Amino acid sequence: MKYYGITDKGLVRKNNQDSYVIATNEANDIFAIVADGIGGNFGGDIASRMTVRFFSKVFSETEQFTSEEEARKWITSAINACNLQIFEYGQTHENLKGMGTTFCGVMITSFGKMIVNIGDSRAYALYDHSRLTQLTTDHSLVNDMLIHGELTPEEAKTYPKKNILTNALGVWESVHADIDLHKEHMDGILLCSDGLHGYVEEAKMKSILLDTDMDPSLSARKLMKSALDAGGYDNVTVIFIDLDGEA
Fold first, then answer.
1. How many C-beta atoms lie closer than 10 Å to residue 70's C-beta?
2. Could you tell me the pTM of the whole model?
3. Measured between alpha carbons, how far is 227 from 234 in angstroms, rounded to an integer?
4. How far apart, in whole angstroms, are the C-alpha atoms of residue 55 and residue 245?
5. What residues have CB less than 8 Å from 102, skipping those under 6 apart?
6. pLDDT 10s digits, 156-182
7. Contact, 209 vs 201, CB < 8 A?
8. What's the pLDDT tens digit per position in 62-108?
9. CA 209: distance to chain centroid?
10. What is residue 223's three-state secondary structure?
C-alpha cells in the first residue's frame, strides 16, 4: 500500500482552510482524513486543524481493531469528542461562533475499509482499473434538492447556494457521521475537498487515476494541477491511497 496527500490554497483564496492527515496506529492500520474548514475570521482554519490534530493523536494511540462493531464504536466516540471540542471553542470565542469543518476519511483495517463522512468532501473508490465510484453522499442543500427533484444535475452546477452544508463537524453541539464498511477489493481510494470535485469533472479525475504508470504522489499532484488549471477558485486537498495488490 502506498499513499500521498497534498493541499493548496488555490489561486483565489487568501488562506487555506483545508487540512489533512494520514495517521497510523500500533497495528499499522491507516486513518486518512480530509477536513475542509468553514466559518469566517479564520474559524475554518482552526476547526480543520483541530480535527486533524485530534485524530492524529487519538488514532495513533489505538491498538488493533478486531471487528466492525469495535471500529464503528471508536469512530463514533472520537467524532463526538472532536465535535464537542470544536463547538465549545467556537462558543468561547465570539468571533469564531459557527466555525466547523467537513470530515471525510477512510480507516483501513484488517476487516475492510471504513468510510466516514460529514459534509461535502468526498471519498471515491477505483475498481478494476476501470471504474471510479463515489462512496459518500454530500451533506449539502444542493444535494438534498437534487434528491427531491428540485434541481437537475446541470442546474446544480451553477446553483448560487451550492456551498451550503446541512451537516458539519463542530457547528452544532451534536453531529451525525455516515459510517460505511466496504469489504470489496479496491484498487485505490481518493479523498478530496470540493476544491477538486467541484471544479474538475469526474471523467478527468478518472483518467488521471487510471494512468497506472503513476505512483500516488504523481496522481495526487496531477489532480491538484487539474483543479488549479480549472481556475483554482477554492482550497484544494487530495489524498490518494494505492491499494493495488491487496487481497
1. 14
2. 0.95
3. 9
4. 28
5. 34, 35, 36, 38, 118, 119, 120, 121, 165, 168, 169, 193
6. 877 877 789 999 999 999 999 999 999
7. no
8. 999 999 999 999 999 999 999 999 999 999 998 898 999 999 999 99
9. 17
10. helix
